[in-house]
From TrEMBL:
<dbReference type="InterPro" id="IPR036631">
    <property type="entry name" value="MGMT_N_sf"/>
</dbReference>
<dbReference type="InterPro" id="IPR004026">
    <property type="entry name" value="Ada_DNA_repair_Zn-bd"/>
</dbReference>
<dbReference type="Pfam" id="PF02805">
    <property type="entry name" value="Ada_Zn_binding"/>
</dbReference>
<dbReference type="InterPro" id="IPR036217">
    <property type="entry name" value="MethylDNA_cys_MeTrfase_DNAb"/>
</dbReference>
<dbReference type="InterPro" id="IPR016221">
    <property type="entry name" value="Bifunct_regulatory_prot_Ada"/>
</dbReference>
<dbReference type="InterPro" id="IPR035451">
    <property type="entry name" value="Ada-like_dom_sf"/>
</dbReference>
<dbReference type="Pfam" id="PF01035">
    <property type="entry name" value="DNA_binding_1"/>
</dbReference>
<keyword id="KW-0808">Transferase</keyword>
<dbReference type="InterPro" id="IPR018060">
    <property type="entry name" value="HTH_AraC"/>
</dbReference>
<protein>
    <submittedName>
        <fullName>6-O-methylguanine DNA methyltransferase</fullName>
    </submittedName>
</protein>
<keyword id="KW-0010">Activator</keyword>
<keyword id="KW-0234">DNA repair</keyword>
<dbReference type="InterPro" id="IPR036388">
    <property type="entry name" value="WH-like_DNA-bd_sf"/>
</dbReference>
<dbReference type="InterPro" id="IPR014048">
    <property type="entry name" value="MethylDNA_cys_MeTrfase_DNA-bd"/>
</dbReference>
<feature type="domain" description="HTH araC/xylS-type">
    <location>
        <begin position="107"/>
        <end position="181"/>
    </location>
</feature>
<dbReference type="Pfam" id="PF12833">
    <property type="entry name" value="HTH_18"/>
</dbReference>
<dbReference type="GO" id="GO:0008168">
    <property type="term" value="F:methyltransferase activity"/>
</dbReference>
Amino acid sequence: MLYQLPDNDQLYNALLNRDPSYDGRVYVGVSSTGIFCRLTCPARKPKRENCTFYDEIGTAIEAGYRPCKRCKPLAPEANGDPAIQTLTKALEADPSRRWSEADIVKFGLDPSTVRRAFKRQFGITFLEMARLSRMRDGFTTLADGGKVIEAQLDAGYASPGAFRTRFAKLLGISPGKLKSDAILKADWIDTPLGAMIAVSDDNALHLLEFADRKALPNELKRLMKTVKGNIGVGQNTPTKQVKNELSDFFNGKSDQFNTPLVLHGSDFTKNVWNALQTIRAGHTKSYSQLAAQIGQPTATRAVARANGANQIAILIPCHRVIGADGSLTGYGGGLWRKQKLIELERQYL
């Protein structure tokens, strides 16, 4: 067990409230039905005396419980929602399509319900996810030296203005201002947890973020200030290296990252980020433990802010920091990704 479970009264209240902060970390076995569930399960809530709480799926199974067919605790939470499954599979099959609410209705789904489900799980709506998927093709065209108009058409945008607006929202700069001989180059990396944007110079990686993170445009703007706007799209050697290392990581081959990094932050913030890199895959720490590690035991809130300011995801593993009670806490890439990363890294123990 990687942390001490909260008391049963607190966990039962979390079950009643369908608290998502424990998802992937705590499960409930129900003796009256013989099944175990997520605390977010939509099924009718059991009586307090019939509940036993577990921090691992294996422990619940060893205790004789079967996985619930409604909340599907053996799969990521998003996979337990039929609407999410249906639409994500459709998007994978036709990523260049200009999806609309009418398409959602054709699947027999309610657009408002779908919107809430995707926002809860991924932090963005399905239609926003679809637009981001189309943007990948335009991004790749520009990285290969194509013209802006070609990138616009490849991304499926009929309007040049709409394409420029969307591109600027993603990267914080319009496509016409990109430099062909830039100091920093941004590249698109596809991962099992969604697209990521990597920015590097010839020698080191400066940024690695999920493409749908709301803080990404501002982070890129700060980076551009350091090079006076000298940024383009393409792939430098550090980006190639981190792309290969991420592939090994997600395929269960290695949890080691050796890509050289440039850290943009204060001395305190850098100390926090360096401490994060000492947390081994498969392990977690609380903010207070991290504060104590860097010799600042009263700076828990400052440590949390530094954690949130991290702009090199996964390599600087801020996802390995959880609440003191074992609950998942805020993560810029979305709690669903944090849950999945922690689950994935258990194989490296």
